[in-house]
Amino acid sequence: MAFQLAICIFAAKNRNQRNQNPEISKNRNLEKNEEPKPRINRRIEISKNRKIETSKNRPQKKTSTAPYPMINIHSVNGYMTLLSWRLGNILQLATQSFCKRFIDYKIDPCGRLRDQMEMAARTVPANIAEGSSRHQTSYETELRLLDVARASVSELEGDYLNWLMRHNATMWRTNDPRNTEVRNFQLLDAPALSQDYLAEISEYLLTEYTRFATLLRTDDSLHSACVIVVLCERVKQLLTAQINKRLGDFKEEGGFTENMTQERLASIKEKASAEGSPRCPKCGAPMHLRTIKKGSRQGEQFWGCTDYPKCDGTRRRQ
Length: 318
What we know:
Layout: H1 2-20, H2 22-33, H3 42-57, H4 83-102, H5 112-133, H6 139-166, H7 177-183, H8 197-212, H9 221-253, H10 256-274, E1 287-291, E2 301-305, E3 314-316
Antiparallel strand pairs: 1-2, 2-3
Protein backbone atom coordinates (compact mmCIF):
# COMPACT_ATOMS: atom_id res chain seq x y z
CA MET A 1 0.00 0.00 0.00
CA ALA A 2 2.83 2.36 0.88
CA PHE A 3 4.58 1.53 -2.43
CA GLN A 4 1.50 2.43 -4.49
CA LEU A 5 1.12 5.67 -2.57
CA ALA A 6 4.74 6.61 -3.34
CA ILE A 7 4.18 6.00 -7.10
CA CYS A 8 1.10 8.25 -7.10
CA ILE A 9 3.02 11.07 -5.33
CA PHE A 10 5.90 10.81 -7.88
CA ALA A 11 3.50 10.98 -10.84
CA ALA A 12 1.75 14.04 -9.37
CA LYS A 13 5.08 15.88 -8.97
CA ASN A 14 6.01 15.23 -12.62
CA ARG A 15 2.60 16.47 -13.76
CA ASN A 16 3.07 19.71 -11.81
CA GLN A 17 6.51 20.27 -13.32
CA ARG A 18 5.15 19.91 -16.88
CA ASN A 19 2.36 22.33 -16.14
CA GLN A 20 4.84 24.88 -14.77
CA ASN A 21 7.32 24.46 -17.74
CA PRO A 22 5.30 23.96 -21.00
CA GLU A 23 8.50 24.11 -23.13
CA ILE A 24 9.73 20.83 -21.63
CA SER A 25 6.54 19.05 -22.68
CA LYS A 26 6.75 20.55 -26.18
CA ASN A 27 10.30 19.34 -26.62
CA ARG A 28 9.34 15.86 -25.46
CA ASN A 29 6.41 15.74 -27.90
CA LEU A 30 8.66 16.84 -30.75
CA GLU A 31 11.14 14.11 -29.88
CA LYS A 32 8.35 11.53 -29.96
CA ASN A 33 7.08 12.71 -33.38
CA GLU A 34 10.49 12.75 -35.03
CA GLU A 35 11.16 9.87 -37.45
CA PRO A 36 14.04 7.58 -36.48
CA LYS A 37 17.21 8.24 -38.41
CA PRO A 38 18.21 5.39 -40.71
CA ARG A 39 21.25 3.43 -39.78
CA ILE A 40 24.15 3.66 -42.23
CA ASN A 41 25.96 0.44 -42.95
CA ARG A 42 29.53 1.55 -43.58
CA ARG A 43 30.45 -1.75 -45.23
CA ILE A 44 27.71 -1.40 -47.87
CA GLU A 45 28.68 2.22 -48.56
CA ILE A 46 32.36 1.31 -48.97
CA SER A 47 31.55 -1.58 -51.35
CA LYS A 48 29.25 0.66 -53.42
CA ASN A 49 31.90 3.37 -53.72
CA ARG A 50 34.52 0.77 -54.65
CA LYS A 51 32.27 -0.64 -57.38
CA ILE A 52 31.62 2.85 -58.78
CA GLU A 53 35.33 3.66 -58.86
CA THR A 54 36.29 0.35 -60.50
CA SER A 55 33.52 0.67 -63.09
CA LYS A 56 34.87 4.11 -64.07
CA ASN A 57 38.42 2.83 -64.40
CA ARG A 58 37.43 -0.37 -66.18
CA PRO A 59 37.89 -0.21 -69.98
CA GLN A 60 34.71 -0.35 -72.02
CA LYS A 61 34.05 -3.59 -73.90
CA LYS A 62 34.02 -3.28 -77.66
CA THR A 63 31.43 -5.27 -79.55
CA SER A 64 33.06 -7.44 -82.16
CA THR A 65 31.49 -7.61 -85.60
CA ALA A 66 33.80 -10.36 -86.86
CA PRO A 67 31.96 -13.33 -88.38
CA TYR A 68 31.97 -16.66 -86.58
CA PRO A 69 32.92 -19.42 -89.01
CA MET A 70 31.93 -22.31 -86.72
CA ILE A 71 28.35 -21.15 -86.04
CA ASN A 72 26.01 -20.46 -88.94
CA ILE A 73 22.29 -19.92 -88.34
CA HIS A 74 20.40 -20.21 -91.61
CA SER A 75 16.95 -21.12 -92.88
CA VAL A 76 15.14 -23.92 -91.05
CA ASN A 77 12.99 -25.25 -93.92
CA GLY A 78 15.69 -27.72 -94.98
CA TYR A 79 13.80 -30.55 -93.28
CA MET A 80 11.34 -30.51 -96.21
CA THR A 81 13.93 -32.28 -98.36
CA LEU A 82 14.39 -35.11 -95.84
CA LEU A 83 13.02 -38.44 -97.07
CA SER A 84 11.88 -39.30 -93.54
CA TRP A 85 9.74 -36.16 -93.35
CA ARG A 86 8.25 -36.69 -96.82
CA LEU A 87 7.37 -40.32 -96.11
CA GLY A 88 6.03 -39.23 -92.72
CA ASN A 89 3.55 -36.96 -94.49
CA ILE A 90 2.53 -39.81 -96.81
CA LEU A 91 2.01 -41.96 -93.70
CA GLN A 92 -0.17 -39.28 -92.12
CA LEU A 93 -2.33 -38.86 -95.22
CA ALA A 94 -2.70 -42.64 -95.59
CA THR A 95 -3.74 -42.99 -91.93
CA GLN A 96 -6.31 -40.20 -92.22
CA SER A 97 -7.76 -41.88 -95.30
CA PHE A 98 -7.80 -45.29 -93.56
CA CYS A 99 -9.62 -43.93 -90.50
CA LYS A 100 -12.13 -42.07 -92.64
CA ARG A 101 -12.95 -45.17 -94.73
CA PHE A 102 -12.93 -47.99 -92.19
CA ILE A 103 -13.26 -46.70 -88.61
CA ASP A 104 -16.83 -45.51 -88.06
CA TYR A 105 -18.95 -44.96 -84.98
CA LYS A 106 -20.04 -48.63 -84.92
CA ILE A 107 -16.47 -49.85 -84.53
CA ASP A 108 -15.26 -46.91 -82.45
CA PRO A 109 -18.30 -45.34 -80.69
CA CYS A 110 -16.27 -42.83 -78.65
CA GLY A 111 -13.81 -42.02 -81.44
CA ARG A 112 -10.79 -42.80 -79.27
CA LEU A 113 -9.13 -45.25 -81.65
CA ARG A 114 -9.42 -42.90 -84.61
CA ASP A 115 -8.18 -39.95 -82.62
CA GLN A 116 -5.23 -41.93 -81.27
CA MET A 117 -4.18 -43.21 -84.69
CA GLU A 118 -4.46 -39.83 -86.38
CA MET A 119 -2.54 -38.08 -83.58
CA ALA A 120 0.24 -40.69 -83.67
CA ALA A 121 0.53 -40.25 -87.44
CA ARG A 122 0.55 -36.47 -87.09
CA THR A 123 3.38 -36.41 -84.56
CA VAL A 124 5.75 -38.20 -86.96
CA PRO A 125 6.32 -35.38 -89.50
CA ALA A 126 5.69 -32.75 -86.81
CA ASN A 127 8.53 -33.96 -84.56
CA ILE A 128 10.87 -34.48 -87.51
CA ALA A 129 10.26 -30.87 -88.58
CA GLU A 130 10.67 -29.49 -85.06
CA GLY A 131 13.77 -31.54 -84.32
CA SER A 132 15.46 -30.66 -87.60
CA SER A 133 14.69 -26.99 -87.01
CA ARG A 134 16.54 -27.23 -83.69
CA HIS A 135 19.54 -28.91 -85.33
CA GLN A 136 21.58 -25.70 -85.46
CA THR A 137 21.20 -24.82 -81.79
CA SER A 138 20.63 -28.06 -79.86
CA TYR A 139 21.68 -31.57 -80.90
CA GLU A 140 20.12 -32.94 -77.71
CA THR A 141 16.66 -31.52 -78.48
CA GLU A 142 16.85 -32.72 -82.07
CA LEU A 143 17.75 -36.26 -81.02
CA ARG A 144 14.94 -36.39 -78.46
CA LEU A 145 12.33 -35.21 -80.96
CA LEU A 146 13.52 -37.65 -83.62
CA ASP A 147 13.26 -40.41 -81.04
CA VAL A 148 9.70 -39.29 -80.20
CA ALA A 149 8.83 -39.45 -83.92
CA ARG A 150 10.23 -42.99 -84.14
CA ALA A 151 8.26 -44.05 -81.06
CA SER A 152 5.06 -42.61 -82.60
CA VAL A 153 5.63 -44.73 -85.71
CA SER A 154 5.95 -47.83 -83.51
CA GLU A 155 2.73 -46.90 -81.71
CA LEU A 156 0.86 -46.44 -84.99
CA GLU A 157 2.25 -49.70 -86.35
CA GLY A 158 0.88 -51.50 -83.29
CA ASP A 159 -2.60 -50.13 -83.96
CA TYR A 160 -2.55 -51.49 -87.52
CA LEU A 161 -1.29 -54.88 -86.34
CA ASN A 162 -4.12 -54.97 -83.80
CA TRP A 163 -6.58 -54.17 -86.60
CA LEU A 164 -5.30 -57.18 -88.56
CA MET A 165 -5.55 -59.53 -85.58
CA ARG A 166 -8.96 -58.12 -84.73
CA HIS A 167 -10.12 -59.43 -88.12
CA ASN A 168 -8.24 -62.78 -87.80
CA ALA A 169 -5.58 -61.70 -90.31
CA THR A 170 -1.80 -61.56 -90.16
CA MET A 171 0.87 -59.33 -91.62
CA TRP A 172 2.50 -60.18 -94.94
CA ARG A 173 5.79 -62.03 -94.81
CA THR A 174 8.98 -60.39 -96.04
CA ASN A 175 9.15 -62.46 -99.22
CA ASP A 176 5.54 -61.68 -100.15
CA PRO A 177 5.39 -59.89 -103.55
CA ARG A 178 2.97 -57.32 -102.13
CA ASN A 179 5.45 -56.51 -99.35
CA THR A 180 8.26 -56.15 -101.89
CA GLU A 181 6.16 -53.85 -104.06
CA VAL A 182 5.54 -51.44 -101.18
CA ARG A 183 9.17 -51.52 -100.04
CA ASN A 184 10.37 -50.74 -103.57
CA PHE A 185 8.06 -47.75 -103.95
CA GLN A 186 10.24 -44.66 -104.38
CA LEU A 187 9.27 -41.03 -104.02
CA LEU A 188 10.40 -38.58 -106.67
CA ASP A 189 13.13 -36.13 -105.72
CA ALA A 190 12.05 -33.16 -103.68
CA PRO A 191 11.63 -29.96 -105.72
CA ALA A 192 14.09 -27.07 -105.53
CA LEU A 193 12.31 -24.76 -103.09
CA SER A 194 11.96 -21.05 -103.75
CA GLN A 195 10.08 -18.25 -101.96
CA ASP A 196 6.85 -20.18 -102.63
CA TYR A 197 8.23 -23.28 -100.90
CA LEU A 198 5.03 -23.93 -98.95
CA ALA A 199 2.94 -24.13 -102.11
CA GLU A 200 5.62 -26.13 -103.91
CA ILE A 201 6.07 -28.74 -101.16
CA SER A 202 2.30 -29.18 -100.65
CA GLU A 203 1.79 -29.76 -104.40
CA TYR A 204 4.65 -32.25 -104.37
CA LEU A 205 3.28 -34.20 -101.39
CA LEU A 206 -0.22 -34.42 -102.88
CA THR A 207 1.21 -35.73 -106.15
CA GLU A 208 3.33 -38.34 -104.38
CA TYR A 209 0.43 -39.46 -102.18
CA THR A 210 -1.72 -39.95 -105.27
CA ARG A 211 0.97 -42.26 -106.62
CA PHE A 212 1.24 -44.14 -103.32
CA ALA A 213 -2.55 -44.47 -103.00
CA THR A 214 -2.57 -46.80 -105.99
CA LEU A 215 -1.04 -49.43 -103.67
CA LEU A 216 -4.00 -49.10 -101.29
CA ARG A 217 -7.32 -50.82 -101.90
CA THR A 218 -10.20 -48.57 -101.00
CA ASP A 219 -12.52 -51.53 -100.30
CA ASP A 220 -10.09 -53.78 -98.37
CA SER A 221 -9.04 -52.61 -94.90
CA LEU A 222 -6.72 -55.58 -94.34
CA HIS A 223 -4.74 -54.93 -97.51
CA SER A 224 -4.50 -51.22 -96.69
CA ALA A 225 -3.36 -51.98 -93.15
CA CYS A 226 -0.56 -54.23 -94.41
CA VAL A 227 0.59 -51.58 -96.89
CA ILE A 228 0.75 -48.94 -94.15
CA VAL A 229 2.62 -51.31 -91.80
CA VAL A 230 5.33 -51.73 -94.46
CA LEU A 231 5.46 -47.94 -94.80
CA CYS A 232 5.85 -47.67 -91.01
CA GLU A 233 8.84 -50.01 -91.16
CA ARG A 234 10.50 -47.84 -93.82
CA VAL A 235 10.00 -44.66 -91.81
CA LYS A 236 11.42 -46.30 -88.66
CA GLN A 237 14.53 -47.40 -90.54
CA LEU A 238 15.06 -43.89 -91.91
CA LEU A 239 14.65 -42.31 -88.46
CA THR A 240 17.06 -44.79 -86.88
CA ALA A 241 19.69 -43.96 -89.51
CA GLN A 242 19.04 -40.24 -89.03
CA ILE A 243 19.50 -40.51 -85.25
CA ASN A 244 22.77 -42.42 -85.65
CA LYS A 245 23.99 -39.82 -88.15
CA ARG A 246 23.24 -36.99 -85.72
CA LEU A 247 25.05 -38.83 -82.92
CA GLY A 248 28.13 -39.11 -85.11
CA ASP A 249 27.94 -35.42 -86.02
CA PHE A 250 27.72 -34.51 -82.34
CA LYS A 251 30.80 -36.55 -81.47
CA GLU A 252 32.77 -34.93 -84.30
CA GLU A 253 31.56 -31.32 -84.21
CA GLY A 254 30.34 -30.85 -80.65
CA GLY A 255 27.19 -29.12 -79.48
CA PHE A 256 26.05 -25.53 -79.94
CA THR A 257 27.05 -24.46 -76.42
CA GLU A 258 30.49 -25.98 -76.82
CA ASN A 259 31.02 -24.20 -80.14
CA MET A 260 29.85 -20.90 -78.65
CA THR A 261 32.49 -21.24 -75.91
CA GLN A 262 35.20 -21.95 -78.47
CA GLU A 263 34.14 -18.92 -80.51
CA ARG A 264 34.27 -16.67 -77.46
CA LEU A 265 37.73 -17.91 -76.43
CA ALA A 266 39.03 -17.47 -79.98
CA SER A 267 37.68 -13.91 -80.05
CA ILE A 268 39.34 -13.11 -76.70
CA LYS A 269 42.69 -14.47 -77.91
CA GLU A 270 42.47 -12.51 -81.16
CA LYS A 271 41.64 -9.29 -79.32
CA ALA A 272 44.45 -9.82 -76.77
CA SER A 273 47.03 -10.42 -79.52
CA ALA A 274 45.93 -7.32 -81.43
CA GLU A 275 46.22 -5.10 -78.34
CA GLY A 276 49.76 -6.32 -77.54
CA SER A 277 48.91 -7.75 -74.15
CA PRO A 278 51.61 -9.55 -72.10
CA ARG A 279 52.26 -13.26 -72.51
CA CYS A 280 51.37 -15.92 -69.96
CA PRO A 281 54.39 -16.89 -67.81
CA LYS A 282 53.30 -20.56 -67.89
CA CYS A 283 52.18 -21.35 -71.44
CA GLY A 284 53.11 -18.23 -73.44
CA ALA A 285 49.53 -17.55 -74.62
CA PRO A 286 48.27 -13.93 -74.77
CA MET A 287 46.64 -12.60 -71.62
CA HIS A 288 43.61 -10.38 -71.07
CA LEU A 289 42.39 -8.22 -68.21
CA ARG A 290 40.13 -9.85 -65.66
CA THR A 291 38.46 -8.51 -62.51
CA ILE A 292 38.46 -10.01 -59.02
CA LYS A 293 34.82 -10.55 -58.03
CA LYS A 294 35.16 -11.66 -54.40
CA GLY A 295 37.34 -11.17 -51.36
CA SER A 296 39.24 -8.23 -49.92
CA ARG A 297 40.63 -7.33 -53.36
CA GLN A 298 37.22 -7.19 -55.01
CA GLY A 299 37.17 -4.90 -58.04
CA GLU A 300 40.92 -5.04 -58.73
CA GLN A 301 42.10 -6.06 -62.18
CA PHE A 302 44.80 -8.53 -63.14
CA TRP A 303 46.15 -10.25 -66.24
CA GLY A 304 44.75 -13.75 -66.76
CA CYS A 305 45.64 -16.38 -69.34
CA THR A 306 43.25 -16.71 -72.28
CA ASP A 307 43.57 -20.51 -72.09
CA TYR A 308 41.90 -20.61 -68.66
CA PRO A 309 40.87 -23.07 -67.20
CA LYS A 310 43.52 -25.17 -68.98
CA CYS A 311 46.16 -22.70 -67.77
CA ASP A 312 45.86 -20.62 -64.59
CA GLY A 313 48.79 -18.26 -65.25
CA THR A 314 48.36 -14.69 -63.92
CA ARG A 315 50.24 -11.40 -63.75
CA ARG A 316 49.72 -8.32 -61.61
CA ARG A 317 48.52 -5.26 -63.46
CA GLN A 318 51.11 -2.50 -63.21
